User: What shape does this take?
Amino acid sequence: MASTLRFVNGRVYDPANNIDGEVRDICIKNGKVVDSLPDDTPSIDASGMVIMPGGVDIHSHIAGPKVNLARKLQPEDHRHDPHPGTNFTRSGSGGTVPSTFATGYRYATLGYTTVMEAAVTPIGALHTVEELHDTPVIDKGFYLLLGNNIYLQTLLKEGRHDEFKQAVGWWINKTKAYTAKLVNPGGDEPWKGKRNSNVTDIDEKSDLLNISPRDVIEAFVKTVNELGLPHPPHIHCNNLGHSGNYKTTLETMKTAGDLRMHLAHIQFHSYGGEPGKNPDSKAVEIAEYVNTHPNITCDVGQVMFGKSTIMTADAPLAYLLRGFKKGKWVNADAECESGCGILPFSYQEHVFTHALQWAIGLELFLLSEDPWRIMLSTDHPNGGSFMSYPKLIRLLMDKEFRKEEIGKVNQKAIAKTNLPSLDREYTLNEIAIISRAAPARALNLKHKGQLGPGADADITIYDDQEDKEMMFNAPRYVIKSGEMVIEDHEFRNDYYGKILHSAPEFDEEISEDIRPFFEKYYSIEFENYGVADHYLHEHEIIPRVSS
Amino acid sequence: MAENTRIVKNATCTFCGCVCDDMELTVDLDKKVITKAKNACVLGRAWFAEHQIDDRPVAMIDGKEAPLEEAIEEAAQVLVNAKFPITYGLSDTTCEAQKQAVAISDIIRGTIDTTTSVCHGPSGLAFQDIGESTSTLGEVKNRADLVIYWGGNPAESHPRHFRYSVTPKGMFIPNGKKDRTVVMIDVRKTPSAPVADILIQVKPGKDFELLWALRALVKGRKVDPQIQVMTGVPLETMTDLVERMKNCRFGVLFFGMGLTMTRGRHFNSGALLALATDLNEFTHFVAKPVRGHGNVTGADNVVSWQTGYPFGVNFSRGFPRFNPGEFTTVDTLTRGDADAALIIASDPASNFPKAAIEHLKKIPVISLDTKETSTSKLSHVAFATSTYGINTAGTVYRMDDVPIPLRPAFESPYPGDEEILFAIKKRVHELILSKCGATGATGEARVASKLML
Amino acid sequence: MSLELSMHTRPQVPLEAELLGPDKTLGLDSKAVSGLQIQHGNEQVTVGDFFKVKGKGEGAIHLEGDLARVKLLGSGMTTGKLHIHGDVGEHLGVGMSGGEITVDGNAGDWVGPEMAGGRIVIKGNAKHLAGSAYRGSAAGMLGGEIFIHGHAKNEIGHGMRNGLIVIGGNAGDFTGVNMLAGTIVVLGEMGIRSGAGMKRGSIITMNPAEMLPTFSYDCIYHPVYLRLLFRALRTQGFNISDAKLTGKYQRWSGDSVELNKGEILVFTP
Amino acid sequence: MTETMILIPGRSSKQGTSLNKGKLKEEYIDVTSILEMNMDDMTRLKLKDGDEVRISNEIGSAVVRCKGRKPDDLPSGVLFIAYGPPSSELMDGDTAGSGMPLSKHMQVKIEKVAA
Assistant: This one.
């Protein structure tokens, strides 16, 4: 194991430290970036190369019950994309939902070293942790689905706001989660209990609990900020995918006031038009709001053409999509906590809606003024596989290429957008922001997404190439926690990263309030619920942040 | 009460797929025996009472006692030298042990399959065709007002299954069983029948036809009254059932091996999954296979997340390939493809088709089991292991994919499956590396530390 | 001169030989063919380890010996002729798009799965899943012809999208299950549940068949195209009497749980 | 007298409990060799509880003891046995590309074994 490494003559992009393409040395010792190393330390020449912090994916679906169902569902998707093992790395299979080993190794081959799983039911947290352990190279964490939690909603209905806060703290601790995730808040109950219906308005009160999605969102924004979780509530708004949903998205953002809020895959929430009819683009309106509200961060959820897998806690949405082709479909209800829908999907250039979605994603990237608050994601594998990130980066960096690609898709859809008029090209520095520095900052991962002294030595080194897709597809070196995992494009080492989680303070008494509810309505024992400490192995608690 | 007694609360019974985790075990630590298992069913009580410490050698080679290290070396040599080694079993062990078994198969480029293939494997294939509308058992408890069992006999195979589905009071089922309609569909009147409000007896082997007719009725298509001659079920009974299914608030279809093991196999399961899917046009409807042995669901999950496929996975080419009928154990044995076998916590020699058992007798078999079995008796290398959930900690998955941690009751002098499989894995990896001439720090240094997985 | 391979060593475990096809050996001499890598269980071996190779790759290849353990022959074949003088193992001609494979003996499971064109002729029996989709895929055979002169077993043409499958003997259960289109002819008897889940396409049989409750009887008639089809099949060596050539057929349509645009034609003497 | 019937091997709780003692123990072997049969069928075949019968098909055969069940519980022509060595003897190894042998619903011939 190399405990020291030095790269010389590389061009460094480290936006968090205001380093924009300077040629400088990067020194690594015991897993961290250091100022300097003794002169006799051997060096690796990185001339003609670009050095960036390891990539950080703020929103991806890589582990847990729904991911595994999606894996099992699609042997046909794995079959044509095997992932062979080596003498020291495990084999696996690819496709849109790769096996755990393939997921870790493939993220690494793109230079990513930290990935957050974006939606986990509390009852499935243990399963998720088990899978994350088998996901090599990357550090990882997960967001906990709490937005349709019946116990928490009951507290809201009863106006017990302090208990609500303690209970959120309890759940995050109990499951070793990173932050709270809301998916279509209020939508589960009509789905499960009212013949597969859904909530359609942010102010629609539920029959059962007499609270609206807005009540839920407001409570979480406040509570998560008070608890000081490192990442604000991560929100998948109501009405995902529906025409006219941009109004819901704007209302959701307004609910935050000036508190922190992260909107997931905002592309899917930026549609104009009448419900039930063809959508048009409201990227301008959404980008405008984000631009002027520094408390809001978001990731795009770009759609990329080709095979994808829809997997979401938004069960009514998955069922709606299933209606188009009537192909295989999974629904999986988790008791008292969440719904879930899964189906294979494919985005096609000639289809109006798909082309529009693709264009809106690009518009959002290009219209956003602050790259620190709009992050690169495809909502893997919903909008497309994370393996398409290099192509997406080229679309952002290369307007000629973008123009060619725009020419290949449904022109009626393009006509509904401003995309052809947007000439902006992302710089390497901006790419370094949206794919590493910004997500690390939004996650309050102070040692990641940057290369200053003391930072985690998670580093990616690319050959500088004209074709940015080629460049980002195959880093020459990937270093994880100071270990050379990829050298000269080949795996040299296996490595298993750690689990990143929060441990907010809360009043233990709350568990005695939760217990009777649990014993009445859950099907496992209270003591056997959650993720016990010994399941964590390598892990790191991300400290509380003050709001 | 014996002097040295321990009470283990919230312990988990790993006998059947219900994986009930509300056991209260009374353990006599001197005698190393569980004297009482509160809350356990008849199967669970036997499971806890009978798993005492046997007096058997920890390892045997060709029927003779052997030191553990020697047996591990022999097992590793057999596996590394085989060209088509198969790994099978894994339902009665922890996920931790299952991970080791998949790793071994990956390293030796063998084939891994679990008891799923002869249990709900066909439902797994059906899942890959149709998908599945499903839920955790708690949601059934809280919401299901129509509960249908098809081709299964839970009263005998999963005696406490009804505590999730029939008897409990739930959030929207305040009066328990009174608020539910229970339907039992089977070829015979089983001991489960008394629980049912409606009993439908279908002619043996005609489940698919009945399911298909129900699907047609749900979709509003006409069905010839002659259907009664074919299935033994009158058309009026079917239309009545269809109306109940469409009009319930939350319906559930549980199904057993009366579908998967009979003519039609995966298409029977598929027809049922499709029926549940169809019903979602009208109301919320879910389906769930009533899975068998303790942690067979864990095996499905572990093999899926590590390879992408749930069972019947082959690594000959250095990556996973899936093909039931080709890489499943009954087939690799019946065809005579396998040239060595690693059998973990299962006993194919006592319940496989005769032709498969005959081949098993011809090849070197390595077995891990808590008891002496027909398989351990014909093994070249036989390891005696401790019992999961009773002696060994770890994780198991309930039939609805909910993971549950184990709380062992007392220590066993025998090692757990995970421990032995880990030792075999470590050794096969060393042997493979030396076989292909790989040297250098990277590979070998990692063997010990990071191939822990 | 064609390429001739005769097996000199019986494989102990399955041999996977997807490189053995007339197109992939085109232009190779016997030495080069002997050196091609194939998979014996988990080991890479060469063709020469198991076969004596004579001749040159000029578009035709003959294989001899007990090939029941040899899988994936003629994979992805695009052109030429592959003749197997004996039995053959699983996955024969997987995904082939052209050329012709002939097997004098019996074949294993998965004959011509997901094939798109060309022809496979089995003179003996085949097993399960001829012309089918692999698990999880919706579409099986996309085109081409599979002629099995003996019997075949379950799931013939599972998910078939186009093409022709003819079984001279009996078929197992679920013939044409989930088929999207295409034609399956069974000259012997069919098992049960034929056409389950079919959307379009035709299944033609010469013997009475048990129909699923989701198939409905339409009429009895003589479909003209059958005469053309059967004449062509006679030239392929299938024994079809004049009565069947010119006779009447019951038409059943289904599957009503799907599109209901498929048909099962049953010869009515 | 020989008849063709349908054999349905399955699980029983007695088999489940005895399995914990060990599959090589007498109790398990005993439980897995009792054939349940429709009483009317038994009368017709001149069988009484405990009589030995041979069940066989093209795969193999096994000798088991029969036990009557009420016609309501077990239809005529259907036999039930708990999984075990006798059912293995009759099981075909062909899985039809599924991995699953036909383990229930086997056509078998049944005949009384002369005492």
Q: What stands out?
A: The interface with chain C takes residues 82-85, 108-110, 125, 128-129, 208-209, 212-213, 215-216, 219, 221-224, 226-227, 230, 263-264, 267, 274, 315-317, 322-326, 337-339 of chain B (CB under 8 Å).
